[in-house]
């Protein structure tokens, strides 16, 4: 005769499911209502909005979405999915709620609600909004430059071709504009912060151009090369030596090379963005 499940069993199951699970999923896994109630009484689980079984180790962002009766979205989903989010963006929990939904069951100032019709259908047992919905919320929630950084990162991480983003019926002008601006070429958000302002001014930029046997982050015009050292740069002295040698070869071939560090791009953004513009004023991007 099979052993009957216990409160400890259902608690371990919820923990194994990520710390939070919809009540219907727990029931479908073979745990009767009585066992769920026992787990709640024992303190192993707690019920949120009578729909979610939550263990002590449940992630805070998903707990916030469940408490609000919505789904994780905007920059909160971006962080969870590994999209690059610029420094300085507040760490509030952003949730997607339907326009006709009841008010969030929380007065938590750390929770930001986005009341929109969904672009992507998701299961009622899912606490994460669709990728397109999150991008739409980001478009309206962040400054344009920061939003484009996140969109470019999402395009790379989620393998979203720019043309597929442009085909989405975005409800906001901001999202439609970002869909038209995404290139899908930036290896990091750092590149977007440097190259997007140049493109906005009509300056031709080719990312990941191969010159002198290696790829460069960006070729501006004909002769201006921009290189950006990522957060993990200098992990290898051999890599650093190779980059210095390549910079020297580029200069010998007549290119002007501008190289910026992670700290410069993130914390001295305005100064970094002015530098290529000064080079353009000196016509360093043009073939002599």
Description:
- The structure is a single chain.
- 45% of the residues lie in helices and 16% in strands.
- With 288 residues, the protein is α+β, with helices and mostly antiparallel strands.
- It has three domains: 7-58; 62-181, no CATH class; 189-281, Endonuclease, Chain A (3-Layer(aba) Sandwich).
- Strands 7-8-9-10 form a four-stranded mixed β-sheet, with helices on both faces.
- A hairpin with a 2-residue loop joins strand 7 and strand 8.
- The mean pLDDT is 92.
Set down the secondary structure blueprint.
Blueprint (H helix, E strand, L loop, with lengths): L6 H10 L3 E3 H6 L4 H10 L2 E4 L3 E4 L4 H9 L2 E2 L1 H8 L11 E5 L13 E5 L15 H11 L2 H14 L4 H5 L6 H9 L7 H12 L4 E7 L2 E7 L3 E5 L8 H16 L3 E5 L1 H6 L1 H13 L7
Parallel strand pairs: 5-6, 9-10
Antiparallel strand pairs: 1-3, 2-3, 4-5, 7-8, 8-9
Our count of helices gives: 13
Total number of distinct structural domains? 3
The arrangement of helices and strands along the chain is HEHHEEHEHEEHHHHHEEEHEHH
Give the N-to-C terminal Cα separation: 87 Å
- The residue fraction in helices comes out at 40-55%
Cα shape: elongated
Overall radius of gyration: 24 Å
Low-pLDDT residue intervals, each spanning 5 or more residues? none
**Percent of residues in β-strands:** 15-25%
Class from helix and strand fractions:
alpha+beta
**Strand tally, please?**
10
Give the overall pLDDT as a whole number.
92
For the report, how would you describe the main beta sheet?
A: 4 strands, mixed
Strands side by side in the biggest sheet: 7-8-9-10
């Amino acid at each position: 005769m099979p052993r009957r499940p216990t409160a400890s069993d259902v608690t371990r199951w919820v923990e194994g499911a990520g710390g939070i699970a919809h009540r219907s999923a727990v029931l479908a896994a073979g745990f009767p209502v009585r066992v769920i109630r026992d787990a709640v009484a024992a303190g192993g689980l707690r019920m949120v909005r009578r729909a979610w079984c939550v263990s002590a180790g449940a992630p805070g962002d998903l707990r916030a979405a469940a408490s609000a009766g919505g789904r994780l979205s905007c920059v909160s989903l971006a962080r969870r999915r590994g999209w690059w989010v610029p420094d300085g963006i507040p760490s509030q929990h952003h949730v997607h709620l339907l326009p006709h939904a009841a008010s969030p069951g929380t007065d938590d100032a750390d929770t930001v609600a986005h009341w929109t019709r969904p672009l992507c259908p998701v299961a009622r047992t899912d606490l994460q909004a669709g990728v397109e919905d999150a991008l739409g919320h980001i478009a309206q929630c962040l400054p344009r430059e920061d939003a484009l950084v996140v969109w470019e990162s999402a395009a790379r991480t989620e393998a979203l071709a720019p043309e597929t983003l442009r085909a989405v019926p975005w409800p906001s002008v901001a999202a439609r504009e970002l869909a038209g601006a995404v290139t899908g070429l930036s290896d990091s958000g750092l590149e977007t912060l440097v190259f997007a302002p140049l493109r906005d001014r009509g300056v031709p930029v080719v990312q990941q151009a191969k010159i002198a046997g290696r790829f460069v982050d960006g070729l501006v015009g004909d002769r201006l090369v921009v290189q950006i050292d990522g957060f993990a740069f200098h992990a290898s002295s051999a890599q650093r030596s190779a980059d210095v040698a390549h910079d020297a070869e580029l200069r010998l071939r007549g290119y002007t090379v501008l190289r910026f560090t992670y700290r410069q791009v993130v914390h001295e953004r305005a100064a970094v963005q002015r530098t290529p513009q000064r080079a353009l004023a000196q016509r360093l991007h043009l073939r002599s």
